[in-house]
UniProtKB/TrEMBL annotation:
This is Delta(14)-sterol reductase. It holds the Pfam family DUF1295. Coiled coil: none annotated. The keyword Lipid metabolism applies. It comes from Coleophoma crateriformis. The lineage of its organism: Eukaryota, Fungi, Dikarya, Ascomycota, Pezizomycotina.
């Protein structure tokens, strides 16, 4: 089996380098976790709501978060629409806001599982930074767009629910594929082998394909099909012109004829039966 040197790009995963620094994974973990209150603040504050007569549909909602620690309530009340009684602190969201928050939280949970359990190679502080701040901005723009849903002719409830039905399964499929690959790689009998079964038998980079799908779905949920194309297109361009060629080159160097055989067996790179 041939070996390769780690990639020089400090903003990427250092492939082939299995050292395990503690600080950068911790920064990534904390940064991704912070995304949830940040996106909640954008969704619930509706910064431009004073320009329009209606909030994002539908109005009203139900308490979904109870028993917030009293020490946290004063801080959180500055950014979230909290109400308090003698025994309970609650956060009220519309059903649409609750679903979008769930979509965001599922993404965060996937990343936390990846950093704590699935990741094998070294993660730099640059990767931790660029893996958190752009996500805040990217999701923040989508959630800000959702605050215009009441006046957006491209947005509709049917598209919203279709997007949610696409988003969460795509995230779970990616997580399932990553867990399967870790189990395969952790088995000493598979040293130097490619994982080519399960989801990896459908597309060589099924994880990237899932990213494209849920990137499109999140955008469509917030702003309709045009937003889905724009935000999903960002994922697509990254994988087609950046991350995809990089991982293909790495696999070619590391596995050589095994990877050639895999490419013949599985011709689709990202999305099965499509491309």
């Amino acid at each position: 089996m041939s070996t390769t040197k780690p990639k020089a790009d400090p903003t990427g995963i250092q492939r082939g380098d299995y050292s395990n620094p503690k600080l950068s994974p911790a920064l990534f973990f904390i940064g991704r976790l912070m995304n949830i209150p940040i996106q909640l603040a954008i969704l619930t504050s509706s910064p431009f709501s004073n320009m329009f007569p209606r909030p994002p549909p539908p109005s009203g909602g139900a308490p979904i978060l109870r028993h917030i620690p009293s020490s946290m309530a004063p801080f959180l009340s500055r950014i979230l629409p909290l109400t308090a009684s003698a025994t309970t602190v609650t956060l009220t969201l519309t059903p649409y806001q609750a679903i979008i928050t769930t979509m965001s939280a599922v993404l965060v949970a996937k990343h936390l599982i990846w950093i704590a359990y699935l990741r094998r190679e070294r993660l730099t502080w640059q990767f931790a930074f660029f893996g958190t701040l752009p996500e805040w901005i990217f999701e923040g723009l989508e959630n800000l767009l959702f605050t215009f849903a009441a006046v957006n002719p491209f947005w509709s409830p049917s598209l919203f629910y279709l997007a949610a039905a696409m988003h969460i399964p795509a995230v779970l499929l990616e997580l399932t594929a990553e867990i399967q690959r870790k189990i395969f790689k952790d088995d000493p009998k598979n040293k130097g082998k490619l994982c080519t079964t399960g989801p990896w038998g459908l597309a060589r980079h099924i994880n990237y394909g899932c990213n494209i799908i849920y990137g499109f779905a999140y955008g469509m949920a917030c702003g309709g099909i045009p937003a889905g194309i724009i935000f999903g297109g960002v994922y697509l361009l990254n994988f087609v012109f950046n991350a995809g060629p990089s991982i293909e080159e790495y696999c070619q160097e590391r596995y050589r004829e095994k990877f050639d055989a895999y490419c013949k067996k599985v011709p689709y790179k990202y999305i099965p039966w499509l491309f």
